[in-house]
Design brief:
By secondary structure, the chain is α/β, with parallel strands linked by helices. The protein contains 14 helices and 11 strands. Helix content is 34%, strand content 13%. The chain has an 8-stranded parallel sheet with strand order 7-6-5-4-3-2-1-8. The protein has a 3-stranded antiparallel sheet with strand order 9-10-11, covered by helices on one side. The protein is globular and about 65 Å long. The chain binds alpha-D-galactopyranose.
Length: 392
């Protein structure tokens, strides 16, 4: 074999290793909106028409994403979560939406979403039932469900894991990956598998996940509170040696939705979630009411510096560098063009706190090292997102 054939082979191997599902999607962390955290399993369209899980809700959010500047910033996936289904499959064995809440069907909703330059995501569960008790996708239904989603024009699948056991999961998650590939329709594949196995090796095989899924939920569901955000940050940081190397273009850890704009976070706490999600290369999937968003919260979610850090093409997940006794944590993410992003997170609960440090003291390049000849950071990233005062 000549040397060019060998290098061709090498390139091919690299490509197939670094892109889950082999379809080139999710080269940077997916961005968009998902119903779950904010709208849950509200199926009461009689008493709560505005907020129930229905095609009207998703059309409203598609309008907002396309008309309020979100799409241009990269927020392109509109994702249906649990509770969209009828409690029985149709005569052909296909999943079907509840016709009272989705009278036009999913294919029509997908057209509506595509016409606005957006993409549609949907939810299914690798087990007998979804977490809220709707029809699941056991092993023998994987093929038909993948085909159904493709025929509707779906672009993204969140595959949950309630009511399945580890053996079924080990078979089912790779099987769905192959079934999505076989449809010929490029779809982003989000796997909840690790979250059902405790999220860590040896139970979780992150190399395999990187080959079959584009992103995966590692840990517990986010709730609308700062405690929940802090708990998630703590778990991901405490386990960064196992998690951080798993991430890269086409394969992302998912600490769950952005809850900015709901009821649980102050403006400073919302800034902290955005900054941490940016530096951890996390999917930026909001779950809030885009029809009714506080302007401060909108500004945080639309912060171009945070988004460009999150979407950095090198796709290296950041790490916690320091945990100070003072309650200040320091995070660092290396970016392309020899740039870096640093986040200083205050977990203090007393008052704004002045924290002094020096870049030389942080010594953050020791982790990855920068070649002496590297040019200085040359990008538009550097401008600050948070005020000088520490956030809490
Ligand atoms: C699980 C998932 C959540 C959501 C619900 C829906 O708890 O982790 O993100 O999809 O199921 O029932």
């Amino acid at each position: 074999m000549g040397s060019s054939a060998v290098s061709g082979l090498l390139v091919l191997l690299l490509v197939s290793v670094s892109y889950g599902l082999d379809n080139g999607l999710a080269g940077t962390p997916p961005m968009g909106w998902m119903a779950w955290e904010r709208f849950r399993c509200n199926t009461d369209c009689i008493d709560d028409l505005q907020n129930c899980i229905s095609e009207a809700l998703f059309r409203d959010m598609a309008d907002r994403l396309s008309e309020d500047g979100w799409r241009e910033l990269g927020y392109e996936y509109l994702i249906i979560d649990d509770c969209w289904m009828l409690d029985q499959r149709d005569k052909e064995g296909r999943l079907q939406p509840d016709p009272s809440r989705f009278p036009g069907g999913i294919a029509k909703l997908a057209r509506y979403v595509h016409d606005r330059g957006l993409k549609l995501g949907i939810y299914a569960d690798m087990g007998s039932h979804t977490c809220m008790g709707f029809p699941g996708t056991p092993l023998h239904k994987i093929q038909i469900d993948a085909q159904t989603f493709a025929s509707w024009g779906v672009d993204y699948l969140k595959f949950d894991g309630c009511y399945s056991n580890p053996v079924e999961q080990m078979l089912g998650y790779p099987m769905m990956s192959a079934a999505l590939n076989d449809t010929g329709r490029p779809m982003v594949y989000s796997c909840s598998w690790p979250a059902y196995l405790g999220g860590l090796p040896p139970n979780v095989n992150y190399s395999l996940l990187g080959e079959i899924c584009h992103l995966w939920r590692n840990y517990d569901d986010i709730e609308d509170s700062w405690d929940s955000v802090q708990d998630i940050i703590q778990w991901f940081s405490d386990n960064q040696d196992d998690l951080q190397p798993a991430a890269g273009p086409g394969r992302w850890n998912d600490p769950d939705m952005l809850i900015i704009g709901n009821f649980g976070l102050s403006v400073d706490q919302a800034r902290s979630q955005m900054a941490l999600w940016a530096v951890m290369a996390s999917p930026l999937i909001m779950s809030n009411d885009l029809r009714n968003l506080d302007p401060n919260m909108r500004a945080i979610l639309q912060n171009k510096v945070a988004i460009s850090i999150n979407q950095d093409p090198m796709g290296v997940q950041g790490r916690r560098l320091l945990q100070k006794k003072s309650g200040i944590d320091v995070y660092w993410r290396p970016l392309s063009n020899s740039c870096s992003a640093l986040v200083f997170l205050s977990r203090r609960t007393d008052m704004p706190y002045l924290y002094h440090t020096y870049l030389s003291k942080l010594n953050y390049e020791r982790l990855f090292g920068r070649p002496r000849s590297a040019p200085p950071c040359a990008s538009s990233h550097h401008s600050r997102m948070t005020p000088q005062r520490e956030t809490r």
